[in-house]
Amino acid sequence: MAKKAPRRTAQRILETGLDLFNRFGEPNVSTTLIASELGISPGNLYYHYPAKDALINRLHEAYEHELGEVLEDAQGVRDIGQAGAFLHRLFELIWRYRFLYRDLNDLLSKNRHLETRFQQVLRSKQTALRTLLGRMAEAGHLSIDPAEADLLARSMVVLVTYWLSYEYVGNPREALEPEHAEESLMRASRHTLQLLTPYLAPAQQQHLLTLGTMDAGEDAALTA
User: What confidence tens digit (pLDDT) does each residue in 140-173 have?
Assistant: First the structure.
């Protein structure tokens, strides 16, 4: 039993750190605050994570592992409905680790390990989204030149990566609060899908319009 306790404490530290980073932003959360929230001594926290960067790096490793599982699903996308479901799942994951995106520039400027790993994250996203476009083209639902597909995949990565920053700038006090999550995720997915519009087959364009109408209705219901 004694051997299992450290693992439980380490996991609790991760979960509490993630919650506090998401709520207040990583620069505003100290290891002392995390320890206080958990009711443990700072020394106990340092035993598991000797510095805040070690905790952040471990959270990023967890995020990167989950991201890999999500991105694998791009291979199964054939139409706009499946693309929307894929993007929504991707944005859900980003939301769960939103502090990484909210404080991205600051984190990368002071954490060399994270800087290197996040470059790989960008490459993985672009590869997956390029695969998604290729699968839709193979299914006859999208017509695009390969060179344009590469640029489109990159544009989608930019939107995926910086959507939460856009939301935050528009409403710094509330945008990243949990009660606004679903609204933000729907908007993010819809705007990313809109980038595909010029290349979609007519039936897929109509389907996309239908998805947009449904989301708009849900947005109105949420804000009523």
Answer: 999 999 999 999 999 999 999 999 888 888 888 8
d(CA 34, CA 56) in angstroms, rounded, equals 12
pTM across the whole model: 0.88
* Amino acid present at 214: M
The token pair that represents 59 in the structure block: 């959270």
Q: Helices in 103-201 by DSSP H: which ranges? A: 104-110, 112-138, 146-170, 181-194
Neighbours of 101 (CB within 10 A): 20
**Could you tell me if 196 and 208 are in contact, meaning their C-beta atoms sit under 8 angstroms apart?**
yes
3 burial (CB, 10 Å; 0-12 / 13-18 / 19+) is: exposed
Cα–Cα–Cα angle for 87, 91, 97, nearest 5°?
A: 150
Rounded percentage of the chain residues whose pLDDT exceeds 90: 76
Name the burial class of residue 213, with classes exposed (0-12), middle (13-18) and buried (19+) by CB atoms within 10 angstroms of its CB: exposed
Name the burial class of residue 128, with classes exposed (0-12), middle (13-18) and buried (19+) by CB atoms within 10 angstroms of its CB. Answer: buried
Q: How sure is the predictor about 180, in pLDDT bands with cuts at 50, 70 and 90? A: confident
